[in-house]
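fwd from M.: "can u put these together and see what the complex looks like"

so here's what she sent:
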Amino acid sequence: MADWKNLDTLASFKKLEETKRVDLAAVMSAEAGAERVKKYSVPMAEGLQYNYAAKAVDDDTLKALRELALEAQLSEKFEELYNGAVINTGEKRLVLHQLCRGQLGKDVVADGVNKRAFYEEQQKRIADFANKVHSGEIVNENGEKFTSVVQIGIGGSDLGPRAMYIALENWAKATGNLKMSAKFISNVDPDDAAAVLASTDVAHAVFILVSKSGTTLETLTNEAFVKDALVKAGYNPAKHMIAVTSETSPLAKNEGYLDAFFMDDYIGGRYSSSSAVGGAVLSLAFGPEVFAQFLDGAHAEDELAKEKDPLKNPDMLDALIGVYERNVLGMEATAVLPYSQALSRFPAHLQQVDMESNGKSVNRFGEPVDYVTGPVIFGEPGTNGQHSFYQLLHQGTNIIPLQFIGFRENQTGTDVVIEGSTSQKKLCANVAAQIVAFACGKKDENRNKNFAGGRPSSIITGRQLTPASLGALLAHFENKVMFQGFLWNVNSFDQEGVQLGKVLAKRVLAHDTEGALKAYSDLLEI
Amino acid sequence: MADWKNLDTLASFKKLEETKRVDLAAVMSAEAGAERVKKYSVPMAEGLQYNYAAKAVDDDTLKALRELALEAQLSEKFEELYNGAVINTGEKRLVLHQLCRGQLGKDVVADGVNKRAFYEEQQKRIADFANKVHSGEIVNENGEKFTSVVQIGIGGSDLGPRAMYIALENWAKATGNLKMSAKFISNVDPDDAAAVLASTDVAHAVFILVSKSGTTLETLTNEAFVKDALVKAGYNPAKHMIAVTSETSPLAKNEGYLDAFFMDDYIGGRYSSSSAVGGAVLSLAFGPEVFAQFLDGAHAEDELAKEKDPLKNPDMLDALIGVYERNVLGMEATAVLPYSQALSRFPAHLQQVDMESNGKSVNRFGEPVDYVTGPVIFGEPGTNGQHSFYQLLHQGTNIIPLQFIGFRENQTGTDVVIEGSTSQKKLCANVAAQIVAFACGKKDENRNKNFAGGRPSSIITGRQLTPASLGALLAHFENKVMFQGFLWNVNSFDQEGVQLGKVLAKRVLAHDTEGALKAYSDLLEI
């Protein structure tokens, strides 16, 4: 059994604090920098690479990080997790999202069921359903084929699947894999559902209701919205809706749905893109084979995450460097900057994965920790961000570590040559230039135009964003966040901070309020 | 002439540092909290209100903030700005975006021209053009009406206009004001332009090329992309494109465009939504009258910003409280959380407005400052964010100040009643509940479920998001950022950090690189 200890009780963490700081601008200059770019790189799955040359680390720091990884028993903890230990201590649950995409260790049996077999069965059922929709075996009341799919869900039932869909939509169009277009309804703001429905041909749409408990207020409200629209248009909601839920929820085995597909309590919402939550919408949109490629990519990255040596384990190394920046160098936020329009909503998804997992102040045993935990995560695609908030990243008073992502080829295959280079080359030239500018800065006698440099970044590179490389990319960040949770000794798999507001909102709606809550309710005329 | 001094040299700032800290959880509880909600509220323009009851301030703090406002001469500096002083010292330029929406002080004459008259003339020219497009006087080569508009621009030419368009799209549909649908192309990633073009009926589209200098690489590249698509479809680009640029740019008086509309060097990109940059696309999409209402709302808020007493000036007060949180309480980021799906891209726009303006380490005279300046800005609409990163906001180890926005009525008028309340009521109930939960917390013996509270927020409330209230909202934040720049004594109107990457990217494309830059270029196969 692994030993769960607070970060600041580890001898190796004290040693890490005492390592000499690296002068990033100096080590990244000229030929020394070129050497680092070649040396400080770890292969990821599906041809991706994690390059950390522009991080403020050197061989001494890396040695200390390796010792920290060993003393914190990161590999042992991961092993316990994928072998079915109760890692989510707060909710007393197993943590099995990796099992949705492959077997990493022993068979995990819970509630009398082999969980890998259960997840595979759901994937198979979804694949059958999707194939029947695509072939025209499952059709609407008029015998017409369904042409689009609309996911109704919020939080983890929305952000991840939506980000994955957007990431692959253009790829799918270019490769002939777009079977159905997908849309998403999430916000309880009625204008969200109204706008999506106004632009949807409801007669030919399959709606996926996603709620593990079957009781999420926003989602049930939006379901009512959709049913209303279907009925008004003369269609039977039961012939247009499927559910993704737990087997024990009121949505399971319910005649109001064409079919229901299952996840369980061991899949956290923010980790559910590779479960039925992502599986239904992605299999309908792109076909089950494409979803299977996505799962294979994620599984291949999970396999890499089992490696004990952090210098060969990109997910663990990324986690360790992040903790070094946060807890030793004192940096408070991380910007995620994909140079790929397809990843436009990937930062919003990682914002949930990271901040909801590690935004905690107590450890796994409910004791307050004396160090900072999860950072703020934000980001927009490059080059857009370059023309916006990069100003603060370059010259602000706080240093924000950066996570770049870049691909050598675009997805659509469409491009133009202007001034001797394609748009894709320009995109890549920009990200390369930014990394060096952040690290090395630029001297100028006009101090307003002077850049001190010393601003650390890493980059994940690859040939192209495909279903498989997207899966690897997603798993990388999920695993990074998991390893960081281990280092901080927090439970990364519950979310009490998300529960509180729900209770209070119900009190407001029941007019069971006093004091400030009543005053705000009056202000908003609730 | 105002006296430009560093924040930490002001006696009133020292006094502010010495004011007693407010126990937010205590003062916001029960009836005392209700009193605060009523008392700590300032009217904004267009029926909006800025409520700061849940900020960690009391009458003593507010007194100190008022003294700071006076000593920092915030009103005098704003007066100098709108009367045409060279406030942008780095680039030696006037700062006149407020003049696009109304006259706040004396006539401003620059380059021999009355600038208010110049901006009005451009608005009028845009209005005439838009009316002719809507009436069918200006048509495509086949004599058919244009039905959609596509803006090509990046940074300030994209984020603001796009956020404003999204904010009003549903309102316009519901009120019969949607004349043409709008789309936006920004990223140099070729997949961005390819995807937008694939979903655009180019035969009936007007394209707006927006670049002040007429030389922005991303924008010219995307223009080539669009021209290519038009030519391939058998259309003449010159009959489909207009330019928004400066009078001296190569795009002005150019036969390649149907027409050109002008801004100038005194309008920063991130402040250009109320200039021709926002004017062309918004007037084409919604009609010139709607754009005029938006400008009127912004101007009304600007007028309020002239008030010398910060307790009656919502923009100045918001700025002062933000500086108190940043420089006295030591908070590093701010989350912008609109409970309105229409404002889904408003946080991304504010991210640029704020971080590009005040992400600076030197003062107006190029001297390094010894205090922190602009914070990280991020956000997503509620209730979506509640199911995501709110975990960290509630229970993370760092306290993040929050800026809520909420409206009593939705835009589309469509709604459903579930469990006795409409979706809009649920939306409002959620934001009210969150404010109180963040401020007061919730005690629980299980420390994992315990919420300490003491997490400050403010809320801007209003009846509905309309063109006028959107204008007021935008001007509020622009003015807040301006006042914060005055307090930090930085130049909020240049962006050297955005320039650097452009130069280096060109070097990469010219293969004029060495060391680390070459190594990264190899990695990306540039």
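replying to her w this: The two ends of chain B are 52 Å apart (CA to CA).
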